[in-house]
Amino acid sequence: xxxxxxxREIKQYKKASLxxxxxxxxxxxxxxLLPLMMARIIDDGISKGSMENVLKYGAxxxxxxxxxxxxxxxxGKSAARASSGFASNLRTAMYENIQKFSFxxxxxxxxxxxxxxxxxxxxxxxxxxxxxxxMCVRAPFSMIFALAMTVVISPRLSVIFFAAILFLGVVLIxxxxxxxxxxxxxxxxxxxMNASVQENVTGxxxxxxxxxxxxxxxxxxxxxxxxxxxxxxxxxxxxxNFPVMMLTVYACxxxxxxxxxxxxxxxxxxxxxxxxxxxxxxxxxISLMMLSMAFVMITMSEASARRIAEVxxxxxxxxxxxxxxxxxxxxxxxxxxVNFTYGVxxxxxxxxxxxxxxxxxxxxxxxRKNGTVPEEKTAERQVSDYVLSDVTFHxxxxxxxxxxxxxxxxxxxxxxxxxxxxDAVSGSVKVGGRDVREYDVESLRNSVSVVLxxxxxFSGTILENLRWGDENATEEECMRACRLSCxxxxxxxxxxxxxxxxxxxxxxxxxxxxxRICIARALLKKPKILILDDSTxxxxxxxxAKIRKAFRExxxxxxxxxxxxRISSVKDADxxxxxxxxRISGFDTHENLLRNNEIYRSVAEGQAEGLGDFDxxxxx
Length: 620
Description:
CATH architecture of the largest domain: Up-down Bundle
Radius of gyration: 35 Å
Structural class: alpha/beta
Number of domains: 3
Number of helices: 23
CATH superfamily of the largest domain: ABC transporter type 1, transmembrane domain
Strand content: 5-15%
Helix content: 55-70%
Shape: elongated
Distance between the termini: 57 Å
């Protein structure tokens, strides 16, 4: 399964892979013929005093050596091209598949784990592939041809070679078997180390402000030490390879010298033939060493290959229907008895319960047979409780809806169902009168703009970031969107205005400035639905009021969902939804909720008196 998945990405590099194999075989043939020519020089030239034969066979040796060099060069070049191209295709295929992931798919993988797969894991597979099409062809060919020549020259002495191969084969099996386990464990440690680095670099300002450099250094050293120990453990087996091989070489040379000398004296073997046998013993044993190193590399990459295949085989949970609808009629939204959960959670397993163990063993056996997961213990799973329960409401085109609720009340979960970032477990979510599952995903998301509390800005100018909303937007359209979001106030104060460069992550602008640029970017999509997920939390109340006023006046036909912890941000909305533990506690105007909804009234009164936000008042 893994090999089939990865081999699909060889694509246009099949020819280079095949040429590498052919060049390797031709190189081996040239090398195998060289000792025969050396034997002819000794037996027919030096021993008989014939300079003509010395020159003739010497010239043939030179030609063979030149051919071997040429074939070796083209073999290396073809192998490098094939392996590098294969790695490039794997990276591209993985990255493209990740871009198709729904939020549910992304939740399965850590960011550090995906980075490790795209870098370290693919590099390991690339090196292993180069070994396969080069060393794993060259070494067996060289060993087989060399063995054949030893049998032709002296069947009696060839027994020494077969004994040496048997001995080295047993040692190699021992080395590979023990090294595999250690190498397989390394990559989870790589994930931990990458996660530590990513977390530290992303939050470097917090680290420095709390003077936690020493703590972060300690975390990184622990991750690095774990990898160091695993590699040392693996290499402690791999390093046996060279001394064992040298021991075998010297033993073979001694045996050949002793038995060959007796055969020369008895006249059953010539000096030239003995010399060629010495060359072949080196060919055979070096081939075995190359094979062992290739096997170690392939073994090390096996875990990487599984991790890569896991991402490539991940099927996006959200896909287009067979005949998708591409036109969204309007921005009306309907939720009909919607239940939603983020999936499964781990439940502790009673490892002492025979029935539980029997069930888990049967599960693991089936999964191993199907090749769906690596051989490891998996915890029993159960479906988690719904985070949204029986949610039903209707929103008309152009309405402004405020959504308020405590932390964990599933405000973001609710609005994520509208652009189909997740799918409801049951019930239906409709936009423009149609179930969102009937729409082309790209068309649906182009009609819905989402501005998160923590939005991302990318390296480039402000204008380039704004055009994420519409890559063909004119500068005048960008400036108008910024006026609506009140971003023009600070952009015009920059020396380069809209040409001002944004650093990675938007670290050279404040939180409020970043939010206003993101709102402008969302407006450039000219969406039918605009979702502001606590996206004015870093904006002062006066600017927040200006933005809401601009929305009412400038985009009246756009349906607007405004999530906030502040009553002041939603009180002017047409209706306000109060969420409590994934259920709708109230859905009405500000005035009616003050009269009829105890949660909303207590929060409004508390915030008016400066007693805190939604969560604090609710707890009180």
